[in-house]
Amino acid sequence: MKIISAILFRWPSDEKTPKVLAKVFDVSSFGFFQRSTVKQWAVFFSSTIIERTKTSQRQSVAENDYICHAFVRYDGLSGAAICDKEYPSRVAFSFVNKIMDDFASKYSKVWDKENQKFDTTDLESDLEKFQDPKSVDKLTKIQKELDETKIIIRDTIESALERGEKLDTLIDRSEILSNSSKQFYRTAKKQNQCCIIL
């Protein structure tokens, strides 16, 4: 899972094409001679998707092994992140929202003016932080923990079922099960049928 680029655009309704405000890339997974081409492709791909995204709308568009997640705000500030296909869309949009909100609050009075230069240090830091979705997204982290818990529980139940002779003893000694439930288990076992005890 990887984010390749994060680009912020200024795109008021009176302009024909979005203007790049700030851009950062992580092209370390590409060969040295491919990196400048990948950066140009990322700017072109992001700009094209922003142009075709309506105001206050989110959109994800796939191209080969990558997806551009784009969002155009009501005020003309727009953002796009290009990720590989394994990167979770929900986290990608959280990333886009965060960089747009941070940028708008930091440069609230000047971001929509012509010919401004912006510091990309915060954007670079966010790009690096969001490379691992589990570290920044609570739901992804919780889902990973739940998946691990399922495996542990499944192993525990399977290991308990492997000791069939002890299971009979446990059922006989159980105070929770009624006599009819115990009788049902014994009958089912004799008939070689599946018995599920709830």
Automatic annotation (TrEMBL):
<dbReference type="InterPro" id="IPR010908">
    <property type="entry name" value="Longin_dom"/>
</dbReference>
<dbReference type="Pfam" id="PF13774">
    <property type="entry name" value="Longin"/>
</dbReference>
<keyword id="KW-0472">Membrane</keyword>
<feature type="domain" description="Longin">
    <location>
        <begin position="7"/>
        <end position="109"/>
    </location>
</feature>
<keyword id="KW-0636">Prenylation</keyword>
<keyword id="KW-0564">Palmitate</keyword>
<keyword id="KW-0175">Coiled coil</keyword>
<dbReference type="GO" id="GO:0005794">
    <property type="term" value="C:Golgi apparatus"/>
</dbReference>
<dbReference type="GO" id="GO:0005484">
    <property type="term" value="F:SNAP receptor activity"/>
</dbReference>
<dbReference type="Pfam" id="PF00957">
    <property type="entry name" value="Synaptobrevin"/>
</dbReference>
<comment type="similarity">
    <text>Belongs to the synaptobrevin family.</text>
</comment>
<dbReference type="InterPro" id="IPR001388">
    <property type="entry name" value="Synaptobrevin-like"/>
</dbReference>
<dbReference type="InterPro" id="IPR042855">
    <property type="entry name" value="V_SNARE_CC"/>
</dbReference>
<dbReference type="InterPro" id="IPR011012">
    <property type="entry name" value="Longin-like_dom_sf"/>
</dbReference>
<protein>
    <submittedName>
        <fullName>Synaptobrevin</fullName>
    </submittedName>
</protein>
<dbReference type="GO" id="GO:0016020">
    <property type="term" value="C:membrane"/>
</dbReference>
<keyword id="KW-0449">Lipoprotein</keyword>
<keyword id="KW-0488">Methylation</keyword>
<feature type="domain" description="V-SNARE coiled-coil homology">
    <location>
        <begin position="138"/>
        <end position="198"/>
    </location>
</feature>
<dbReference type="GO" id="GO:0006888">
    <property type="term" value="P:endoplasmic reticulum to Golgi vesicle-mediated transport"/>
</dbReference>
